[in-house]
Design goal:
With 231 residues, the protein is of the alpha/beta class. It has eleven helices and six strands. The longest helix is centred in the middle third of the chain and has 18 residues, at 70-87.
Length: 231
Amino acid sequence: MTLPHQPAAVVFDMDGLLFDTEIIYERAAISAAAELGREMDSAFFRSTVGSPWTVIRERLIDLYGPTFAVDELRAVAGRIFNELVEADLPLKPGVLELLDLLDTLGLPRAIATSSSRETVRRHLEAHGMADRFHHVVGHDDCERHKPEPDPFLKAAGLLGVAPALCLALEDSYMGVRAASTAGMMTIMIPDLLPATEEIRGLCTDVVDDLHAVRRLLEPDRQRTGETSSEP
């Protein structure tokens, strides 16, 4: 498959897309709930992936009741998460190779994430990638969050590129819905969540990893329509 047209800019999600952090967030949340005497399963956590804290907070209150110390759970999960990523913050396959290609093509890029700008900075600096993105749109930069299109529209505005000329890369349902509503070509690279029929309908393509995205963007592939299974 080829893209409808070569993008003029690329907008990345972060967690589960650039960094293999969604599974770490899951471990941290389940461990935090256990530390506070409650059970949380993977199904519940994964149903919240890509949602802002305000939405997750309401879901937790529905799950555990109005007297549960929801904000304490968030703090404990944050502590555990930070301990885990300090020990190991893995990149997703193909990140550096895709960024190298974008450099070669001269394509500007931004991050649009539900995480804070401070978390983005810390993660990027851990891998020496702070200068590889032209703009960052974090949780604090928008009043409305994914699945609303605002983070992607803001990123496009900062890049100075019309949303329809941007390629959005996402791993979550919320992110795909946001990017699609913003009018961007959207590729899903599934992480914890498989692509559903609804999500496939919103995407230009669903691929296994960022190596596949790189192949789609390679000029020779765009001209010939060829694809490859090799990284």
